[in-house]
Every structure is written in structure tokens, then in C-alpha cells.
UniProtKB/TrEMBL annotation:
NCBIfam families attached to this UniProt entry: proC
The gene coding this protein: proC
Function per UniProt: Catalyzes the reduction of 1-pyrroline-5-carboxylate (PCA) to L-proline.
Principal subcellular localization: cytoplasm
GO molecular function: pyrroline-5-carboxylate reductase activity
Family of this protein: Belongs to the pyrroline-5-carboxylate reductase family.
Residues binding NADP(+): I11, G12, C13, G14, N15, L16, A72, L73, K74, P75
Source organism: Nonlabens agnitus
Keywords for the protein's UniProt record, in alphabetical order: Amino-acid biosynthesis, Cytoplasm, NADP, Oxidoreductase, Proline biosynthesis
GO cellular component terms given for this protein: cytoplasm
Highest taxon of source: Bacteria
Name this polypeptide is given: Pyrroline-5-carboxylate reductase
HAMAP family: P5C_reductase
Length: 267
């Protein structure tokens, strides 16, 4: 089963849905005519009409005509709208993926009351540039459905399968994490400006430095401290800067922020 000839619907094409759509459109093997996106006010999607995708405000029609249904709705609306869609779903044809934070597979199953394969997925907005890390969870034993969903999210980056109990944690570390990293980068750029660079040059140095640091860990699979040790020479400027950051609570603040975000989801 290949994602490249499947009919895909993205229900609720907001910021995250758009990031996924842009990632899918970047895959030349996926026919845009097989993709339908929905939004209550479609005017914000009209600039995408030239790509060949189908744009509509009719969730029922989009769901009925799809095979892979990516539901990118807010947690407070998803169950109500799924209730409105359940009579057009076919358990022998449809595969459903929910992107809603905090809404369990059991809640979705109870709402639609059908035995179709249901997944939860948490990509991030780096899908826009084909670099999302998507965490996927399911209770389904349908291996062909698992393969199809994995193919879908691999087309916008990389994906891993985790236990559903970790999906809220995945939201914080992978999705909220984009904002944490960008805020850290903004701080580095501001520091770069203060020590003499113009904003454009500082941004270029910081973005490529962060990309290089991430690539080191991805390719070498080492602990971050292993790479840090290589640039912290005795009495050097790197260790002096790192120690000053730690004295001001750098790591502690980051960890507390992550835990605070997680607790917000749990509540």
C-alpha cells in the first residue's frame, strides 16, 4: 500500500495542517489532485488553489471522498465534528489520524463507534520544510494501515512510533520544542548583535551553527556532552560562557518550561 496513490483529506487546515500540506506537496510522487483540505473560512486557503488540491468547507464531503483522513482540529472541537462525520466513514476504507493534543484513541473510538484503524500523530511545523519529527501512536494491529501512516509522515520528515501514554510528552518535546529552540536561537542572535554583528549576519551564523550541532548528534549518535567537551578547553571562553549561563539557571529554566507545558496539557 502506497501513500502516493491514496486520497488524503486534511480536516481543519490551520497552521499545523498547512505545514503538513506543504510537506506533502513537496513530494513529487503525491498527486495534489488526491488531496482535499477543509477550513470553515476557505478564503485563507485560496492561494493554494493553483497547486491542484481540492479546497472546501464541507468536512463531510471531504471525509467521504478520502481514504486517509488527517484530522487537524483543536482538542475542544474534534469530538463534536467527528460525531458529525461518523455516518460517512467506512471502516473498510478509511484510516483516521488525529493531531489533537490530549484526546485519546479511546475517546475517538467511542465517538465514531467504528472499527477503522485510528492513529494519533504529533508532527511539528518543520513539516513545512520536510523536517518534521512525528511521533505516532495506535492500538491498531493493521500493519498495512501503520505502514501507510508512517509513509505519510515520513514524506514530511521522519517519524517514530511510541506508546500512547507518551503522546502528551511528545507534544511538548517535539511540537512545543520548535518554539523553545527558536526562542533560544533568538537569544543567540541578540547576543551576536550585542558583540558586533548586524542582525542578518548574526542570524546566518546562529541558524547554521544550530543546524550543524543537531546534525552532529543525529549522525554521530553521541551524548551532547561528548560534543561539548570538544570545544570546552581549560580556561577557555566556551566554558566561561557555559558556566555563566548555568549560574543564571539556563538548563533549569528550560527543564521547568518543558515540565510546565506538560502539566498544562495534563490539566
Amino acid at each position: 500500500m502506497s501513500i502516493h496513490n491514496k486520497k488524503i483529506a486534511i480536516i481543519g487546515c490551520g497552521n499545523l495542517g498547512l505545514s503538513i500540506l506543504n510537506g506533502l506537496l513537496a513530494d513529487p510522487r503525491i498527486n495534489p489532485k488526491n488531496i482535499t483540505v477543509t477550513k470553515r473560512k476557505t478564503s485563507s486557503l485560496e492561494h493554494l488553489a493553483s497547486t491542484g488540491i481540492q479546497i472546501t468547507s464541507d468536512n463531510r464531503k471531504a471525509a467521504q471522498e478520502s481514504e486517509l483522513l488527517i484530522v487537524a482540529l483543536k482538542p475542544y472541537t474534534i469530538l463534536e465534528i467527528l460525531g458529525e462525520l461518523k455516518d460517512v466513514l467506512d471502516q473498510d476504507r478509511h484510516i483516521m489520524v488525529s493531531l489533537a493534543t490530549g484526546i485519546s484513541l479511546k475517546q475517538i473510538q467511542s465517538t465514531i463507534d467504528l472499527s477503522l484503524p485510528i492513529f494519533r500523530a504529533m508532527p511539528n511545523t518543520a513539516a513545512d520544510v520536510g523536517e518534521s519529527l512525528t511521533c505516532i501512536a495506535t492500538k491498531s494491529n493493521d500493519e498495512s494501515a501503520k505502514d501507510l501512516v508512517t509513509q505519510c509522515f515520513n514524506s514530511i520528515g521522519n517519524s517514530i512510533h511510541i506508546n500512547e501514554e507518551l503522546m502528551d510528552a511528545a507534544t511538548v518535546l517535539g511540537a512545543c520544542g520548535i518554539a523553545y529552540v527558536l526562542r533560544f536561537m533568538r537569544g543567540m542572535i541578540q547576543g551576536g548583535i550585542e558583540i558586533g554583528f548586524d542582525a542578518h549576519t548574526a542570524t546566518t551564523i546562529v541558524t547554521h551553527t544550530v543546524k550543524g550541532a543537531a546534525q552532529l548528534l543525529i549522525e554521530r549518535k553521541q551524548h551532547p556532552e561528548h560534543e561539548i567537551d570538544k570545544v570546552t578547553t581549560p580556561k577557555g571562553c566556551t566554558i566561561a560562557g557555559l558556566n555563566e549561563m548555568e549560574h543564571n539557571g539556563f538548563s533549569s529554566a528550560l527543564i521547568k518550561g518543558i515540565v510546565t507545558s506538560y502539566n498544562k496539557i495534563e490539566k
